Amino acid sequence: MNDFTVSGMEQMLARLIDIGTVFGIKLLAAIVVLVLGRWVAILLRNFIEKSMRRSDVDETLISFTANLAYIALFAFVIIAALAQLGIQTTSFIALLGAAGLAIGLALQGSLANFAAGVLMLLFRPFKVNDYIEGGGTAGTVREIEIFNTILLTPDNKTVIVPNAKMTGDKIVNYAKQGTRRVDMVFGIAYDSDIDKAKQILWDLLKNDSRILPEPEPMVVVLELADSSVNIACRPWVNAGDYWTFYFEMTEAVKKQFDANGISIPFPQRDVHLYQN
Questions:
Q1: Rounded CA gap, 196 and 218, in Å?
Q2: Which of 79, 87, 111, 166 has the CA that lies 20 to 30 A from 237?
Q3: pLDDT at residue 248 above 90?
Q4: What angle do CA 185, 132, 161 make, to 5 degrees?
């Protein structure tokens, strides 16, 4: 009886040793896969960051893309490590796939904004501090985020525009070219001296240091309207000088016309501004 008990214990011990040895090898393999996989994931993340920085990609997109690649690869490494331990990962992968599908359906709008944000950061239709029109509003770009673009309007209101809406229609970037043409129309009475009015406009342009020599400004008779002769004034300025020049020029023209006897019909036709 004692011999049988000792023999049984020896067999059980031998079996435990065999199980422990096999499990130990699997555990060691899983640890090796986990460590090496994490190391490879870090290398991949660093490689993506360096490559995108060399391509002058936006820092927000660099960080997001690199971390996304790291998380995806590391998740694969964890599944591989679990497989080394003999754990069935098929159902786990299926569960992750189903969860991903459900999340994707629930976040369709957010995913559309995300995709639009990625495209904007890649192709850069505008950058921070550009004055743009898009998404039903106009303002200066303050931030370009993955899901939203933040604009500051001229009256100091912060507008948050979803990126999908921003890219869903035309985007007008007034700062992209660096210069803008100011299209102004001034109406004078039919009995006023056209040549004198045109000379006043030319003098104001020549004495303003904000006017660019190229392209050359234009001062021409635009049309003979019902109650006025309309003179078009079209100078070019740097984009940052646009509004200050526009307001100051409008005031200066009125004062010079009054001082030189150039009559302005009343009520005067609105001054027109054509955005290019």
A1: 15
A2: 166
A3: yes
A4: 135
Q: Which of 1-5, 171-175, 194-198 has the highest mean pLDDT?
A: 194-198
Three-class secondary structure of residue 148 per DSSP: strand
Domains of the chain as residue ranges with CATH: 2-106 (1.10.287.1260), 125-173 (2.30.30.60), 179-259 (3.30.70.100)
168-195 pLDDT, tens digit each = 888 899 888 889 999 999 999 999 999 9
Distance CA 173, CA 154 (A): 15
Reference 114, options 67, 74, 147; nearest CA is 147
Instruction: Give the SS3 label for residue 179.
Output: strand
Average pLDDT value for residue range 134-163: 88
Is beta strand 184-188 parallel, antiparallel or unpaired with respect to 148-152? unpaired
Predicted confidence band of residue 251 (pLDDT cuts 50, 70, 90) = very high
Strand-pair partners of 160 = 150
71, containing H or E segment:
helix 59-84
Residue 208 has what pLDDT? 92
Find the DSSP H helices in the chain: 2-54, 59-84, 90-106, 108-123, 163-167, 194-206, 242-259
Question: Largest alpha-carbon pair distance within the chain?
Answer: 135
Reported as type and span, the H/E element at residue 163 is: helix 163-167
What is the token pair recorded at 32? 């090796």
Residue from 198, 191, 244, 189 nearest 217 by CA:
198
- Separation between Cα atoms, residue 89 and residue 31, nearest integer Å: 17
Give residue 271's pLDDT.
Answer: 46
